[in-house]
C-alpha cells in the first residue's frame, strides 16, 4: 500500500506540473494574440494603378517623384512598373532628401544622374534646387508623387511634394499623388500648429507636428488651404488606398515596412519620431550613429542609471526608459558625423508600453525640462529647435526656466481642434 501511495503521489505531482505548463502555454498564447495587432488587407494607390494597368497614362510622358519606398506589395518599384507597362514613357525622375534610392545620409549633397533602365534624368530636389524647374518639366505631361510618409511635419518629403505640386500647377501639368497609409494613424493629432514666422523646409505649412492625414489627404489640404490663397489651383488627382482605416497603425496592414529614410528603420521609430526628433534641436544625441536612432538618446555627461530613474519617475503615459551606454559612430549612407561621434554616452533606451496612449511630443517636452533641471551646466538648446518645434515658445520656456512646459501643451488644443475641423474636409477615408 505504501508503494502504491508513493506512486500515486508521483503521478499527481507530474499531473499538476503538466496542468501548470499547459495553462501557462494557453495564457502565453492568449497574451501573444492580444498583443499582436490584427492584420488587414490593404492596397496602396500603386497597387490600384497596377490593377488598372496604368490605362489613364496611355501615351503620356511621365515624371515621377519617388524614392525606394515607391513599391507595390511584391516589391516592384514604380519606375519599373510604369516603364514595363508599355503604356507610357518615363521621361524624368525626381528624388527627395536621401535620394531616389534612399541611400544618402541626412543633409548630404545629391547629384543629378541618368537612370540606366529608362534613360530618364534623375533630378535631386534636395539641395540648391528644391522644386522642378521649367527645364526639368519640358518633356513631362503628367507629374506623379509616390513616397511613403511618416506623419510628422518636419519630415521633408511633404515639403518636396508641396513644392512639386506648386510647380506642376504653374506649368499646367496634372499632378497625381499615389496614396499610402499614415503609419502612425490618421485619427490622432498632436503638437503646436506651425507659426509661419518660423516657416522652413522642415516646417512648410501651418499644420501640427503630428497632423493625422495621409499624404494624399495632405495634398488636398495644401491645394485647398495654401495654394488656392495664392491664386494657384493644382490639377490634383489622388489614387486612393483600399482597405485602410484612420485608426490603423502600419502593422495592422499587410503592407511590408520599407524604411522611409536611413534612420527610420522601424514602426516604433516612427511612433516616437514626432516628439523625439526635437532632440536634434538640443545637445543631446538623438541616437544617430547607433542601431536605434530616436529610440536611444543621451550624452557623455549623463549618468544613465540616474537619468533613467528620473525619467521613469515622471510616469509618462505609454513609455518607459532603460538605462544604457552607447557610442555614436559614422555609418556610411546612414549617419554622417553624428553628435558625440566615437564618444561614450550615457542615456536611455525607449520602451513603448502603450502606443495608443503615448503622446510623444508632450513626453519630449517634459523630458527636455527634466534634463535641463538635472544638468543645468551641460544641457543646451540649438537654434534649430525653433524650426522643428514651429515657434520659439519651447526654446524660450526652457531657457527662462520660470514657466512649466505644461503651459505649452495646455495651449495646443484650440489650434488642433481648428486644424482638425478644416482638414476633415479633405478626408478620403473613415
Q: What's this entry about, in short?
A:
33% of the residues lie in helices and 14% in strands.
What is the string of SSEs from the N terminus onward?
HHEHEEEEHEEEHEHEHEEHHHHH
Sheet of most strands: 7 strands, mixed
Looking at the structure, the CATH topology of the largest domain is: Rossmann fold
Question: How much of the polypeptide forms β-strand, as a percent range?
Answer: 5-15%
Shape: globular
Summarize the topology.
Layout: H1 2-35, H2 45-51, E1 61-66, H3 78-85, E2 89-95, E3 113-114, E4 121-124, E5 142-146, H4 157-170, E6 175-178, E7 190-193, E8 208-210, H5 215-225, E9 236-239, H6 267-276, E10 296-299, H7 304-313, E11 319-326, E12 345-352, H8 360-374, H9 384-389, H10 393-400, H11 406-410, H12 412-423
Parallel strand pairs: 1-2, 1-5, 2-4, 5-6, 6-9
Antiparallel strand pairs: 3-4, 7-8, 10-12, 11-12
Helix pairs in contact: 4-5, 6-8
Textual characterization of the structure:
- With 430 residues, the protein is an alpha/beta fold.
- The protein folds into two domains: 45-256, 3-Layer(aba) Sandwich (Rossmann fold), CATH 3.40.50.12170; 267-391, Aspartate Aminotransferase, domain 1 (Alpha-Beta Complex).
- Helices cover 33% and strands 14% of the residues.
- A seven-stranded mixed β-sheet has the order 3-4-2-1-5-6-9, sandwiched between helices. Strands 10-12-11 form a three-stranded antiparallel β-sheet, covered by helices on one side.
- α4 (157-170) packs across α5 (215-225) and α6 crosses α8 (360-374).
- The protein is globular.
- The model is unreliable at 1-34 (pLDDT under 50).
